[in-house]
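yo, SET domain-containing protein is done. seq:
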Amino acid sequence: MADQIQRRKFQFKGLQASKQLTSSFMASLFQKFQEAVKVLAKSPTFAKDPRSLQFEADVNRLFLYTSYNRLGKDAVETDAEEIIDMAGKASLADQQKQVQENVHSQITSFCKYMDHILQPDLSVKDKPGTPSSENNYSPRRSGLSFAIGRTAPLKDHGAIPENKPLKRTEVSQSLKDLMGYTLKVKPSQIPHEDAGQGLFIHGEADVGTVLAVYPGVIYSPAYYRYIPGYPRVDAQNSYLITRYDGTVINAQPWGAGGESREIWDGSSLPEPKHFMQADGKGSERIWKMLSKPLDGTRLGGNHEVLERRNPLAFAHFANHPAKDMVPNVMVCPYDFPLPEKHMRVYIPNISFGNGEEANMRRFGTFWFKSWKSGKNGLDVPVLKTLVLVATRAISNEEILLNYRLSNSKQRPPWYTPVDEEEDRRRWS
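structure:
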């Protein structure tokens, strides 16, 4: 499907010199996509239960937004109509695959920009007395590489690859110059006292753009009991997010990043406070029986060389919109293919545990091991991450994300539902 889109782009490329698209025409195309989003999101044919319905509606929106973005300035109306038509007919699996390819294409471009900013001048590597980076850095590759075979993730970190000693602010400004936008963390404009710091885009980005990556430690359901503060993990940590597949990402240890490239193991975790006062009744008694926190140190440390100056690794600072405000991004699951070693340093996540997947079965709010093979059936090992995708053109403003907090639990006073029905379906 991606090849089909690319072929259409090349077919029309030669015509664009004499027939440039005007801004009004692009606005018209986007309006078509927005109308398709509203219609398809309400279709009863996608799923049989509310949670699956919401998941498929989200995938459908992401398919439209990211495909629209990939069309770019070379788009013609027939391209847009074809994508909308595919959104109504393509299977969920095909749409998921296309979303992954669209996001991966943007992540690949971002990594190339970061290489351009941070890679040392290799032309001087052969001069006497100049250390060579040839053995410390993998050669760059291009294109989508979802089927390039199994390759073990990087484990031997004998030395951190040579890179320019730039400050984080310098890296961020350089990325804006190359890509058109970067991110800043500063006091939120949300009018409530708990808003704290907010996430802002500095520059401009079109709809469907990957604006931010959710950093931190990734926990599969098999390792929930190792999350600090378990079982009430969110009581002292507002930087947790959950994917539809049950994967939890804890951004608290990542914080605001750093000022260098380093070997990172996610161990900078605050001591969890003892906050649960069990009364021995009802659900609390069940939690007491099933929820004994485990010591994660017994599993051994998983660590990677990561670029802590990553200007996009701030998705955890995005705030929920206040009343009468509208979100301008949505979450998108992104499975980063680990064989892409040359890009790994710019993916601000590590997996907790030994990296092996354990089959889990869900029973109510609990997950149990099924004691079967840990193979996930994928062609390549992946890192299950999340990114924020723009749902409209965005320019020099605060990034707002619909938190979709569960309506089955007590919500904080500042939370105003964007769409109560979506919240209900998400956590049904």
